[in-house]
From TrEMBL:
Protein name (Swiss-Prot/TrEMBL): 3-dehydro-L-gulonate 2-dehydrogenase
Biological source species: Candidatus Pantoea formicae
Signal peptide positions (record): none
Keyword line: Oxidoreductase
Root EC class: oxidoreductase
GO terms for MF: 3-dehydro-L-gulonate 2-dehydrogenase activity
Listed EC numbers: 1.1.1.130
InterPro entries: Mal/L-sulf/L-lact_DH-like_ah, Mal/L-sulf/L-lact_DH-like_NADP, Mal/L-sulfo/L-lacto_DH-like_sf, Malate/L-lactate_DH-like
Length: 337
């Protein structure tokens, strides 16, 4: 497997984004986030997303020149219109503003409407937690998953993020409402591998671990079956309600690519003002040690807490280079030329 250094990958992506029309500041920030995402072991929303992002910029589905605007302020809460600008820069602005509000009031909430794909949602949980903050964030998406009992897509997989800071590393959960994201299906297919657990249905309605038939049928499996289906519906409703933005049904009507017109929520809490910094740090450590001390089940090598594997993967890839799919890397190099 080819490995690329962090700096080389970031510089290459940055050049591709500059070529696509982003200004220097936007290109540098987006390139760093894409590279960090691949470095953490999630290429589906890092390097592998660059070509699609460039395509959306060229089509005008993402507006490189958009300036997000605060349209309502309610003490600890603000509503912003992302003007369909780059999802990463909009989301960074939103979580940073929510953090500012949390430092002032103990908690802050920014609801962002009319934005575009934020790439890896966990980025914003990590960003808050590394500043000593706790966070809850989520986004809605275009329909890409059937409701439980349905065959055609009616729900977004609506990624959901929670983060709690800690000395040994933050607890960070980043999950879609589908058992696997489409990015994970793509990565698994490119490797010629099978999913470890059934991820959806083929065209004939059979549960399968083969990612290709699931991609073709778009019948991905909701996490927890009917529970994930219900949670996806309510996350969609709450994101649209709080932001005054579009729900999945309305995003589908736009028909301009992944998450164009999405609604997103960024809630940030300052533990120092609520329970005390020492309490927060001790809480995370207690949970981490307790989980790590689990009796290991058959077929597993250990038990980890959310965020632990990403932290270890990041450190390893920083040292030995980030693994890439050769075809994807060649495509991004071409965009940068």
């Amino acid at each position: 497997m080819t490995r690329i250094t962090f700096d080389v990958m970031q510089a290459t992506i940055e050049k591709a984004l500059l070529n696509a029309g982003l200004d220097a500041q936007q290109a540098a920030l987006c390139a760093r986030i894409h590279t960090e995402t691949s470095c953490d072991g999630i290429p589906s929303h890092g390097l592998n997303r660059v070509a699609r992002f460039v395509d959306y910029l060229q089509k005008g589905w993402v507006d490189a020149h958009a300036i997000p605007e605060c349209v309502k302020s309610l003490s600890v809460m603000e509503v912003w219109d992302g003007q369909r600008g780059p999802g990463i820069t909009n989301a960074i602005r939103a979580v940073d503003r929510a953090t500012e509000l949390a430092r002032e009031h103990g908690m802050g909430l920014v609801a962002m409407r009319n934005t575009t794909h934020w790439m890896r949602g966990g980025t914003y949980g990590w960003r808050a937690a590394e500043q000593g903050m706790a966070a809850i964030c989520w986004t809605n998406t275009e329909s890409c998953m059937p409701a439980w009992g349905g065959k055609n897509t009616r729900l977004g997989n609506n990624p959901f993020v929670m983060a709690v800071p800690g000395k040994q590393g933050p607890l960070v959960l980043d999950m879609a409402m589908s058992q696997y994201s489409y990015g994970k299906l793509q990565v698994t297919r490119l490797k010629g591998e099978q999913l470890p657990y059934a991820g959806g249905f083929d065209a004939q309605g059979n549960l399968t671990c083969d990612p290709a038939p699931i991609e073709a049928s778009m019948r991905i499996l909701p996490t927890g079956y009917w529970k994930g289906s219900g949670l996806a519906i309510l996350l969609d409703a709450m994101a649209a309600l709080l932001s005054g933005g579009s729900c999945t049904a309305e995003i589908d009507g736009i028909q301009q690519g992944s998450c164009t017109g999405a609604s997103q929520i960024f809630m940030v809490f300052d533990p120092a003002q609520i329970s005390g910094q020492n309490f927060s740090e001790q809480l995370a450590e207690t949970i981490q040690q307790y989980v790590n001390g689990s009796m290991v089940a058959e077929g597993f090598s250990g038990v980890t807490w959310p965020g632990e594997r990403q932290k270890a993967t990041r450190e390893r890839n920083r040292e030995v280079g980030i693994p890439v799919d050769d075809g994807v890397w060649a495509e991004v190099q071409h965009l940068a030329s």
